[in-house]
Amino acid sequence: MDATAARLKKMEKKLGAIVEKDFARKNDGHEPGHPARVCKMAMHLQAKEGGDIVVLIIATWLHDYHRLSRGKNGHGCHPKNSLKRVRKIISELGIKLSSTRMKKILNCVKYHEEGTDSTPKNARCIETAIIQDADAINELGATGLIRDFRFSGAHNIPVNDAIAHMCKGGAATFGRRKINTASAIPIAEARFALMVDFFRKFHDEEHGEA
Fold it and tell me: Is the pTM of the predicted complex or chain greater than 0.85?
């Protein structure tokens, strides 16, 4: 392992440890395993699409800190409300970054739930596109199904309502959010197809069909 790879691995280990601690009590699909999967997918996409690995590692591990807070209406906060905390974590971990990298990380976190069309032009870059795709892909496929069922169980949502939510969420990935990068499209399509097949089978079994 060369010096750069070793440095990146050490940095990711630090990030993983603090996320593990902060998200230990989450059981609704945003547990520590989620940012780990998003990071791995982002690295897969980065190998084909390019982009700053340091920005992607930090942004993927810290992208969901808004999930730990609640807005005035009791619902989750917008990712922009976590940017101060993200800066603090980076500082506490002793990670030295250029102003350009810090700006990209904050934009990735702030706009990770958006699609390119709804991301301000001055925040659009390959890193933002990749984290949007990696996070969206994690909502799909077998992982997406498990996450949605965990979320539904944590919030006492009936099964049929959970299925309806999954259908809507999967469609949103190809609608509101869309997929940005060419490398992510076949992955997202394959995972969505798995979900559609599951929904069909669930419908058949729910209605007593063999």
Answer: no
